[in-house]
């Protein structure tokens, strides 16, 4: 990790530790105030606990033009971003995506879409619906490795993180506490529950927390839809296509709507926020990831709406290309931050 980023974060953390005005704002400050000195691992843990709500910055009396020039949200954001790149496996993928996230996401989606469009010539024999374009076995052969790779990559990354912050043995009670906190997005609600100042200094809003929840729960619903369809196909001998009122369709459509709207709102909020309070160099990567995830949801909804038209093969190629790009790029995008954040909450629960 870059020593200058850690040194600046250490300087600011030491001043905050002496001041303690923001003690009740979020999980960062009780953890920060529990230390007298800050190792590189301590700073990495604090950075991944921070949700960049920015409330502490707007409340701080030591921001510029004060000589202390505190900007803790930016300092922690830069350490956090650098830690994700350093822990990623392989590291080169994360660094490349943060520099050119939008272009990489776009090129990957289009490249995979063209691959699926070409593969339709190998389509199934006598398949129905989407399987008339690409067989079920072909989809499994393509997407199973694409799912296993990011899980393996993220597992390696989390192991590196766990060692770097000096975490102890994983305990179920700590994991349960962290999952409850993540499900509620507690640290995005502000120290007093009125929301955070992400959009505007004087405006407390829960919009960012709600957008994150829409994306998270929308994604989980879509994953549940795929999992349910897998069980129905293999265990119950009920292959797709499924009717509208089937469980896979209900889960997938509701999840797709939530995920799409949540991503649109997150992009809107990011464009309204002050870039000087975050890791400005990572903005392209963040927009690229959120846009890719939103396109996965949107393309799935459009595919369902127009699945009985002549556009279906083209829409299916685009959707599958987006899904495959999303899975393969997950370890290098901000999608990985959810795993790091959960790990940080587990470590904090054991503090």
TrEMBL record:
Locate the transmembrane regions by residue number.
101-119, 139-158, 214-236, 242-264, 276-304, 310-332
What keywords are assigned to this protein?
Answer: Membrane, Transmembrane, Transmembrane helix
For this protein, the record's InterPro entries field holds: Citrate_utilization_prot_B, NarG-like_sf
Matching SUPFAM superfamilies: 4Fe-4S ferredoxins, Respiratory nitrate reductase 1 gamma chain
UniProt-recorded name of the protein: Tricarballylate utilization 4Fe-4S protein TcuB
Q: Which organism is it from?
A: Tropicibacter oceani
Source gene?
tcuB
């Amino acid at each position: 990790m870059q020593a200058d980023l850690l040194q600046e974060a250490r300087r600011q953390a030491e001043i905050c530790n002496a001041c303690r005005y923001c003690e009740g704002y979020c999980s960062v400050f009780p953890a920060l105030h529990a230390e007298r000195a800050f190792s590189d691992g301590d700073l990495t843990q604090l950075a991944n606990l921070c949700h960049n709500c920015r409330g502490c910055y707007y409340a701080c009396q030591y921001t510029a033009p004060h000589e202390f020039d505190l900007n803790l949200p930016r300092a922690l954001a830069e350490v956090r971003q650098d830690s994700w790149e350093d822990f990623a496996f392989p590291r080169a993928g994360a660094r490349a995506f943060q520099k050119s996230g939008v272009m990489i996401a776009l090129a990957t989606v289009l490249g995979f879409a063209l691959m699926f469009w070409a593969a339709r010539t190998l389509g199934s024999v006598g398949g129905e619906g989407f399987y008339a374009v690409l067989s079920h076995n072909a989809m499994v052969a393509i997407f199973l490795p694409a799912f296993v790779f990011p899980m393996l990559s993220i597992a390696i990354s989390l192991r590196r993180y766990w060692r770097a912050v000096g975490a102890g043995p994983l305990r179920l009670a700590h994991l349960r506490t962290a999952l409850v906190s993540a499900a509620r997005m507690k640290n995005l609600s502000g120290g007093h529950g009125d929301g955070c100042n992400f959009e505007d200094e004087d405006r407390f809003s829960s919009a960012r927390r709600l957008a994150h929840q829409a994306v998270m729960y929308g994604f989980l619903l879509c994953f549940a839809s795929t999992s349910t369809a897998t069980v129905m196909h293999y265990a119950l001998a009920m292959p797709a296509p499924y009717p509208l009122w089937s469980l896979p369709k209900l889960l997938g459509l509701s999840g797709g709507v939530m995920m799409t709207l949540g991503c649109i709102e997150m992009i809107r909020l990011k464009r309204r926020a002050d870039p000087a309070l975050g890791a400005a160099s990572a903005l392209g990567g963040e927009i690229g990831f959120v846009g890719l995830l939103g396109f996965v949801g949107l393309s799935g909804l459009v595919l369902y709406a127009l699945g009985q038209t002549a556009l279906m093969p083209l829409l299916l190629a685009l959707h599958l290309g987006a899904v495959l790009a999303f899975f393969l790029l997950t370890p290098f995008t901000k999608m990985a931050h959810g795993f790091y954040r959960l790990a940080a909450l587990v470590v904090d629960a054991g503090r």
